[in-house]
Amino acid sequence: MFIFGDPIIAIAKILNYVLEIYKWVIIISALISWVNPDPYNPIVRFLHSVTEPVLRPIRRFIGYRLGPLDISPLVVIIAIMFIQLAIIKPLMKFGYILGGG
């Protein structure tokens, strides 16, 4: 059964790495937004183009109920952590049960 276990573990690890990197991109984007960055900077444009498609629907749903405080990055980070714990971790355990690793 190791034929099925190893690919499942590999997919779970790749998904975990991608989510971890995206979590850090969200954190960096939130930190940069505090200092009024240059909108023409390529790094700022990249961060904005990568994070806005995820943050915009959350902002639309939550709105600015806390005044000027934007909690949408926090909501996304919590959602990523939930996905890592509720989906990725059991998927890795399932791969190890099937004989991988």
Per-chain topology:
Layout: H1 2-33, H2 42-62, H3 72-97
Query: Quick one: overall form?
Result: elongated
How much of the sequence lies in strands comes to under 5%
For the record, give the distance between the C-alpha atoms at the N and C termini, rounded to a whole number. 11 Å
DSSP, total strands = 0
Question: What is the string of helix and strand elements?
Answer: HHH
Number of helices: 3
Poorly predicted sequence stretches spanning 5 or more consecutive residues = none
Number of domains: 1
Give the helix proportion (percent range): over 70%
Instruction: Calculate Rg over CA atoms.
Output: 17 Å
Mean pLDDT rating: 91
| Largest sheet: number of strands, sense, barrel closure | none
Return the structural class. Answer: mainly alpha
So what's the oligomer here?
single chain
What do you see in this structure?
By secondary structure, the chain is mainly α. It has one domain (2-97). It has three helices and no strands. Helix 1 packs across helix 2. The protein is elongated, with a radius of gyration of 17 Å. The model has no long low-confidence stretch (mean pLDDT 91).
Summarize the structure.
This protein is mainly α and 101 residues long.
Which features does this protein show?
3 helices, 101 residues, mainly alpha, single chain
